[in-house]
Amino acid sequence: MRKLAAAISVFLLLSPLQATANASAPTDQLKQSLDGIINILKQDDLDREAKREKIRTLFRERFEFRIMSRRILAKNWKAASPEIQERFVKLFTDLLEATYVGRIEEYSNERIDYLKEQLKDKRAVIQTAIVSKNLEIPINYKLALINDKWLVYDVIIEEVSLVRNFRSSYAQIIRKEGFEELMTRMQKKIETLRTESEKGKQGQVRK
Protein backbone atom coordinates (compact mmCIF):
# COMPACT_ATOMS: atom_id res chain seq x y z
CA MET A 1 0.00 0.00 0.00
CA ARG A 2 2.79 2.45 0.80
CA LYS A 3 4.48 1.84 -2.56
CA LEU A 4 1.14 2.45 -4.21
CA ALA A 5 0.67 5.61 -2.17
CA ALA A 6 4.05 6.86 -3.33
CA ALA A 7 3.13 6.20 -6.93
CA ILE A 8 -0.27 7.85 -6.64
CA SER A 9 1.24 10.82 -4.83
CA VAL A 10 3.59 11.50 -7.71
CA PHE A 11 0.96 11.08 -10.39
CA LEU A 12 -1.98 12.92 -8.89
CA LEU A 13 -1.04 16.07 -10.79
CA LEU A 14 -0.67 14.67 -14.27
CA SER A 15 -3.70 15.82 -16.21
CA PRO A 16 -3.81 19.14 -18.11
CA LEU A 17 -4.56 22.09 -15.85
CA GLN A 18 -7.60 24.08 -16.94
CA ALA A 19 -7.52 26.93 -14.43
CA THR A 20 -5.66 30.15 -15.10
CA ALA A 21 -4.09 32.49 -12.58
CA ASN A 22 -6.75 31.92 -9.94
CA ALA A 23 -4.72 31.92 -6.71
CA SER A 24 -7.38 29.84 -4.92
CA ALA A 25 -7.09 26.97 -7.42
CA PRO A 26 -4.44 24.54 -6.05
CA THR A 27 -6.85 22.02 -4.52
CA ASP A 28 -9.24 22.29 -7.46
CA GLN A 29 -6.39 21.56 -9.86
CA LEU A 30 -5.29 18.61 -7.74
CA LYS A 31 -8.80 17.12 -7.93
CA GLN A 32 -9.02 17.72 -11.67
CA SER A 33 -5.70 16.02 -12.16
CA LEU A 34 -6.68 12.95 -10.18
CA ASP A 35 -9.73 12.58 -12.40
CA GLY A 36 -7.48 12.91 -15.43
CA ILE A 37 -5.09 10.10 -14.48
CA ILE A 38 -7.93 7.78 -13.48
CA ASN A 39 -9.58 8.40 -16.85
CA ILE A 40 -6.38 7.34 -18.61
CA LEU A 41 -6.27 4.11 -16.61
CA LYS A 42 -9.91 3.38 -17.50
CA GLN A 43 -9.51 3.81 -21.26
CA ASP A 44 -10.04 0.25 -22.48
CA ASP A 45 -9.25 1.22 -26.07
CA LEU A 46 -5.64 1.99 -25.10
CA ASP A 47 -3.08 -0.73 -24.57
CA ARG A 48 -0.68 -0.68 -21.60
CA GLU A 49 2.14 1.10 -23.43
CA ALA A 50 -0.17 3.74 -24.90
CA LYS A 51 -1.45 4.54 -21.41
CA ARG A 52 2.09 4.74 -20.11
CA GLU A 53 3.11 7.09 -22.90
CA LYS A 54 0.26 9.46 -22.10
CA ILE A 55 1.22 9.34 -18.44
CA ARG A 56 4.88 10.05 -19.26
CA THR A 57 3.95 13.11 -21.30
CA LEU A 58 1.68 14.51 -18.61
CA PHE A 59 4.20 13.67 -15.91
CA ARG A 60 6.82 15.93 -17.49
CA GLU A 61 4.32 18.75 -17.80
CA ARG A 62 3.11 18.74 -14.21
CA PHE A 63 6.29 18.70 -12.13
CA GLU A 64 8.76 21.52 -11.70
CA PHE A 65 11.90 19.40 -11.98
CA ARG A 66 14.31 22.34 -11.95
CA ILE A 67 13.08 23.56 -8.56
CA MET A 68 13.18 19.99 -7.27
CA SER A 69 16.72 19.56 -8.58
CA ARG A 70 17.94 22.79 -7.01
CA ARG A 71 16.47 21.83 -3.66
CA ILE A 72 17.87 18.30 -3.81
CA LEU A 73 21.40 19.44 -4.62
CA ALA A 74 21.18 22.45 -2.26
CA LYS A 75 24.66 24.04 -2.00
CA ASN A 76 25.97 21.57 -4.56
CA TRP A 77 23.70 23.16 -7.19
CA LYS A 78 25.65 26.43 -7.08
CA ALA A 79 28.92 24.53 -7.12
CA ALA A 80 27.94 22.67 -10.30
CA SER A 81 28.58 24.02 -13.78
CA PRO A 82 25.54 24.88 -15.97
CA GLU A 83 26.24 21.74 -18.01
CA ILE A 84 26.16 19.52 -14.92
CA GLN A 85 23.00 21.25 -13.71
CA GLU A 86 21.23 20.50 -16.99
CA ARG A 87 22.43 16.89 -16.99
CA PHE A 88 21.20 16.41 -13.43
CA VAL A 89 17.75 17.86 -14.17
CA LYS A 90 17.34 15.52 -17.14
CA LEU A 91 18.56 12.46 -15.23
CA PHE A 92 16.38 13.22 -12.23
CA THR A 93 13.35 13.69 -14.49
CA ASP A 94 14.04 10.35 -16.20
CA LEU A 95 14.61 8.65 -12.85
CA LEU A 96 11.29 9.71 -11.34
CA GLU A 97 9.49 8.80 -14.54
CA ALA A 98 11.10 5.35 -14.70
CA THR A 99 10.40 4.76 -11.01
CA TYR A 100 6.71 5.57 -10.93
CA VAL A 101 5.14 5.04 -14.37
CA GLY A 102 4.52 1.33 -13.77
CA ARG A 103 3.38 1.61 -10.16
CA ILE A 104 0.41 3.86 -10.85
CA GLU A 105 -1.21 0.93 -12.65
CA GLU A 106 -1.72 -0.67 -9.22
CA TYR A 107 -4.35 1.95 -8.36
CA SER A 108 -7.56 0.17 -7.30
CA ASN A 109 -10.12 2.74 -6.15
CA GLU A 110 -8.37 3.96 -3.00
CA ARG A 111 -10.11 7.10 -1.76
CA ILE A 112 -8.36 10.47 -1.71
CA ASP A 113 -9.42 12.85 1.07
CA TYR A 114 -8.52 16.53 0.66
CA LEU A 115 -8.01 17.85 4.16
CA LYS A 116 -6.50 21.31 4.13
CA GLU A 117 -4.96 23.93 1.88
CA GLN A 118 -2.37 26.48 3.00
CA LEU A 119 -1.78 29.29 0.54
CA LYS A 120 0.85 32.02 0.73
CA ASP A 121 1.69 34.20 -2.25
CA LYS A 122 2.65 31.83 -5.08
CA ARG A 123 3.21 28.75 -2.90
CA ALA A 124 0.71 26.23 -1.57
CA VAL A 125 0.67 23.16 0.64
CA ILE A 126 -2.20 20.72 0.22
CA GLN A 127 -2.78 18.10 2.89
CA THR A 128 -4.44 14.90 1.70
CA ALA A 129 -4.78 11.26 2.70
CA ILE A 130 -5.02 8.07 0.68
CA VAL A 131 -7.58 5.86 2.37
CA SER A 132 -8.15 2.14 1.89
CA LYS A 133 -10.15 -0.28 4.00
CA ASN A 134 -7.44 -0.80 6.60
CA LEU A 135 -5.00 2.06 6.15
CA GLU A 136 -4.79 5.82 5.88
CA ILE A 137 -1.61 7.43 4.55
CA PRO A 138 -1.12 11.21 4.91
CA ILE A 139 0.39 12.93 1.89
CA ASN A 140 1.23 16.61 1.57
CA TYR A 141 2.01 18.38 -1.70
CA LYS A 142 4.09 21.51 -2.08
CA LEU A 143 3.22 23.50 -5.17
CA ALA A 144 4.40 26.70 -6.84
CA LEU A 145 2.38 28.92 -9.17
CA ILE A 146 4.43 29.20 -12.36
CA ASN A 147 3.03 30.65 -15.59
CA ASP A 148 -0.53 30.30 -14.30
CA LYS A 149 -0.11 26.62 -13.37
CA TRP A 150 0.30 25.01 -9.96
CA LEU A 151 3.30 22.68 -10.25
CA VAL A 152 4.58 20.21 -7.68
CA TYR A 153 8.09 20.67 -6.32
CA ASP A 154 7.93 18.28 -3.35
CA VAL A 155 5.78 15.45 -1.98
CA ILE A 156 5.74 14.51 1.72
CA ILE A 157 4.50 10.99 2.51
CA GLU A 158 4.03 10.19 6.20
CA GLU A 159 6.23 13.20 7.06
CA VAL A 160 9.05 12.04 4.75
CA SER A 161 9.96 14.57 2.07
CA LEU A 162 10.83 13.26 -1.39
CA VAL A 163 13.25 16.13 -1.89
CA ARG A 164 14.89 15.78 1.51
CA ASN A 165 15.28 12.04 1.06
CA PHE A 166 17.11 12.45 -2.24
CA ARG A 167 19.16 15.36 -0.87
CA SER A 168 20.57 13.29 1.96
CA SER A 169 21.62 10.31 -0.15
CA TYR A 170 22.92 12.37 -3.09
CA ALA A 171 24.95 14.71 -0.88
CA GLN A 172 26.86 11.74 0.53
CA ILE A 173 27.70 10.44 -2.93
CA ILE A 174 28.83 13.86 -4.16
CA ARG A 175 30.96 14.42 -1.07
CA LYS A 176 32.69 11.05 -1.32
CA GLU A 177 32.82 10.42 -5.07
CA GLY A 178 31.77 13.57 -6.96
CA PHE A 179 29.06 14.61 -9.42
CA GLU A 180 30.15 12.26 -12.17
CA GLU A 181 29.77 9.19 -9.98
CA LEU A 182 26.34 10.36 -8.84
CA MET A 183 25.12 10.79 -12.40
CA THR A 184 26.64 7.47 -13.44
CA ARG A 185 24.67 5.76 -10.67
CA MET A 186 21.50 7.60 -11.66
CA GLN A 187 21.88 6.51 -15.28
CA LYS A 188 22.44 2.88 -14.28
CA LYS A 189 19.36 2.98 -12.05
CA ILE A 190 17.26 4.39 -14.89
CA GLU A 191 18.44 1.64 -17.23
CA THR A 192 17.65 -1.03 -14.63
CA LEU A 193 14.15 0.32 -14.04
CA ARG A 194 13.43 0.53 -17.76
CA THR A 195 14.65 -3.03 -18.27
CA GLU A 196 12.40 -4.25 -15.46
CA SER A 197 9.49 -2.35 -16.95
CA GLU A 198 10.09 -3.91 -20.37
CA LYS A 199 10.18 -7.39 -18.85
CA GLY A 200 6.91 -6.67 -17.09
CA LYS A 201 5.34 -5.54 -20.35
CA GLN A 202 6.49 -8.71 -22.13
CA GLY A 203 5.05 -10.78 -19.30
CA GLN A 204 1.70 -9.07 -19.74
CA VAL A 205 1.76 -9.82 -23.48
CA ARG A 206 2.49 -13.52 -22.91
CA LYS A 207 -0.45 -13.75 -20.53
Q: Your description of this structure?
A:
The chain has 207 residues and is α+β, with helices and mostly antiparallel strands. The protein has helices at 2-11, 26-41, 48-62, 65-73, 75-79, 82-100, 162-177, 179-206; strands spanning 111-120, 123-131, 136-146, 149-157, 160-161. Strand 4 and strand 5 (160-161) form a beta hairpin. The radius of gyration is 17 Å and the shape is globular. 25% of the residues are buried. The model is unreliable at 11-23 (pLDDT under 50).
Q: Give me the oligomer status.
A: single chain
Instruction: Note poorly predicted spans.
Output: 11-23
Radius of gyration: 17 Å
Tell me the number of helical segments per DSSP (H or I, 4 or more residues long): 8
Give the mean pLDDT: 82
The tally of strands reads 5
For the largest beta-sheet, the strand count, sense and barrel status come to:
5 strands, antiparallel
Note the run of SSEs as H and E.
HHHHHHEEEEEHH
Characteristics of this structure?
8 helices, five-stranded antiparallel sheet, alpha+beta, globular, 207 residues
